[in-house]
Amino acid sequence: MSKNLEIEFKNMVTEEEFQLLLKTFQITKKNFFSQTNHYFDTKNYSLKKLGAALRIRELSEKYELTLKKPAVNGLWEINDTISQSEADLLMKNSIFPSGEVKDELLQMHINLNEFILFGSLRTERAEIEYENGLLVFDHSFYKGIEDFEIEYETSNRDEGEKKFYKLLDKLNIKIQYADNKISRLYKVTQGKKDVSP
Question: Rounded to an integer, what distance in angstroms lies between the CA atom of residue 129 and that of residue 89?
């Protein structure tokens, strides 16, 4: 289990801009790995109403159950590593594994039996260290849609923001607001617009 404060900046980019970023940082196909996020909420969107989000991240060798909650300067991210069988039980039968995420949801007074899996999103991702932070290159696929984004994860909001937008300016990349992934998937799945992290 881990709990950490997530501070990140995102920008949607065109495929052409994405290729420019890959070329600039010498990122090749071998630098990418695949991950699939499976997103959950209750039927009446209890988490969304609280500005929170719940997902299972499926990687090649492990599964992570993550709850994100609003914090003053970003998002609290609570993670539990779970087994494939625990992931399957949650996705198919809404049976929660024991851990910090379950405990936190109970403290939020949310009925665990009401959770449903409302969609999945696959991302081909590459990451590099950049200016004391992490630069993330994402090519995502969901519901017949493909999109591209660049993210910058940092521990200092003010410095990180300056570094991120300086990079976009240097490469003449247009600033384009990026909804988080659960929001993009949610809009396509449910046709709604007001969404959680």
Answer: 36
